[in-house]
Amino acid sequence: MPVPLLEARNLKKTFPAPGGAFAMGAASAVPAVDAVSLELAAGETLAIVGESGSGKTTLARMMLRLIEPDSGELLVEGRDFLAARGSQLRALRREMQMVFQDPFASLDPRMRVAAIVGEPLEIYEPSLSRADRRTRVVDVLRTVGLGEEALARYPHEFSGGQRQRIGIARALILRPRLVVADEPVSALDVSVGAQILELLQNLQRDFALTYLLISHSLPVVAQLATRIAVMQRGRIVETGPAAQILNAPAHPYTQSLIAAIPALPASAV
Ligand SMILES: Nc1ncnc2c1ncn2[C@@H]1O[C@H](COP(=O)(O)OP(=O)(O)OP(=O)(O)O)[C@@H](O)[C@H]1O
Ligand SMILES: [Mg+2]
């Protein structure tokens, strides 16, 4: 079996209990992520589903080393990601990008699209000329369905769906291998969200991307995921191929999530 692109072993993270350690009557801290092990194979779309507060975002952020785990291991193609420092860490980080839930909050309202999308290039490829940077920005905007006229405009001039395209362009400009999408369509209307999901699918095919998709919505997951991990209270309670989890869920919690959906799209089953 090929080495996973990214592997988590026994990842654990506990945030301090609200009110601080010495607060009277404070509940003892519960782990947000509790001994999670997960493998992400190159080219797949692994979805993490689970109710609000189950630890999905915390897990994803740890897997990108945006927050440090309390314990556990992280391996990128078999190499110790937690031990990476300096230029090695930088090189690994640029291969893993994130698409955020809220395209209204995640784009700096004072920056023009050219600067928003080009910023990662300024950071990671500072030697690029202005003209070359502009070309790269225009290219990536085109791949997400936006034209050159977007360059000089500000985020507020775009619709929610277009803003999410801008966020995706920013995530893709460094040509990452892994994209973590945390609730990428939950702030959008269903029809706009469906177009974004289709875009994500096309981009995966065109750029051989690996996706870690976080969503509380099983219909969204059904459209994109090849594999599903179900999270409850910081733990993975069930994981398997998407069709198996959607059609024959084994865990009662997964069964309750599926029972809560009115109807899955026919293409999913
Ligand atoms: N920075 C933080 N400080 C303290 N507690 C946190 C922090 N981030 C997350 N938590 C807590 O960790 C738990 C898991 O939160 P997390 O945001 O990972 O869940 P989630 O599954 O992404 O939820 P949602 O679906 O609402 O986004 C929750 O109890 C949350 O309150
Ligand atoms: Mg979350």
Written account of the structure:
The chain is of the alpha/beta class and 269 residues long. It has helices at 56-63, 86-94, 113-124, 130-143, 160-172, 190-207, 218-224, 242-247, 252-259; strands spanning 6-14, 31-40, 45-49, 71-76, 79-80, 96-99, 178-182, 210-214, 227-232, 235-241. The chain has one domain (6-10, 42-81, 103-268): 3-Layer(aba) Sandwich (Rossmann fold). The chain is built from nine helices and ten strands. Helix 3 runs parallel beside helix 5. The protein is globular, with a radius of gyration of 19 Å. The model has no long low-confidence stretch (mean pLDDT 92). The chain binds adenosine-5'-triphosphate (ATP) and magnesium ion. Adenosine-5'-triphosphate binds next to helix 1.
